[in-house]
Amino acid sequence: MPMSSIVELKNLSKSYALASTEVSVLRQLDLSVQQQERVAIIGPSGSGKTTLLLILTGLDTATEGHISIGGESLLGMSGDDRADLRRERIGIVFQSFHLIPSLTARENVALPLEIAGLSNSRQRAMNMLEKVGLSDRHNHYPSQLSGGEQQRVAIARALIHEPELIVADEPTGNLDEQTGDLIMQLLFDLNRDSGTTLLLVTHDTELAARCDRTLKLQDGRLHSLDSSDKATR
Fold first, then answer.
1. Is residue 19 part of a domain?
2. How many Å apart are CA 103 and CA 145, to the nearest integer?
3. Residue 119 and residue 112: Cα distance in Å, rounded?
4. Considering the domain boundaries, does residue 116 fall inside one?
5. What pTM was estimated for this model as a whole?
6. H helices within the chain, ranges in order?
């Protein structure tokens, strides 16, 4: 039985007004991502990768074109509706961990559930911390955790509400190579075990090669890379 798509972009464009000119960042992008697929987006700095992820997660809006997540169109959605969509269907992992320093690991992970008014948030947070190997650090604050541990807490927080889509923006960018490898293996394992879809922005072509599909964002457009392209880039 074929998988249905969870991300659909059609003729998506984004531009900004800069002084008396208009700067085009994304140009008529088309993209379809299937459920449980792992898709990597690579590209030079300044190519618009982060802008694309911000639009995909409803943290920014497109200038024109269509975008839907899980069949829900973001076109015309209010900011509150986009926030609801993120809370219900999307998990976001940033390069900078964005943990709240005054909260423990468990409290950081439980926060999305508490904001949504869901019950049993603390136990569910402990269960998720156990999945990422940090149940013994649940009472530690971010300043007491290593970079890799903080990123694992951030991943646990992104997954606590069981999203259909995980969007990761350079999740290993602030980590050493060994820790970064462990973090990505964790993301891939959770993608496999939980049946989530993983959309990954990275500069690491070796990491991208581990995904089902790699796209390159350049000059505002997405280009599909075949296996020979992956081997030479």
1. no
2. 12
3. 11
4. yes
5. 0.84
6. 49-56, 79-89, 105-115, 121-131, 147-159, 177-194, 205-209, 227-232
Cβ atoms of residues 69 and 165 within 8 Å:
yes
For residue 180, the model assigns a pLDDT of 82
10 within some domain: no
Q: What are phi and psi of 35, to 5 degrees?
A: -60, 135
Q: What does the mean pLDDT of the chain come to? A: 88
Residue 127's domain spans which residues? 37-58+78-232
3-state secondary structure of 109: helix
Q: In total, how many domains does the chain have?
A: 1
Whether residue 21 lies inside any domain: the answer is: no
Question: Of 27, 87, 59, 71, which is closest to residue 217 (Cα–Cα)?
Answer: 27
* pLDDT (0 to 100) of residue 214: 95
CA distance 209 to 231: 8
CATH number at 201 reads 3.40.50.300
Q: What is the DSSP letter of 144?
A: G
For the ranges 34-38, 111-115, 228-232, which has the lowest average pLDDT?
228-232
Residues 46 and 21 sit within 8 Å (Cβ to Cβ): no
How far is Cα 55 from Cα 25, in angstroms, rounded to an integer?
A: 12
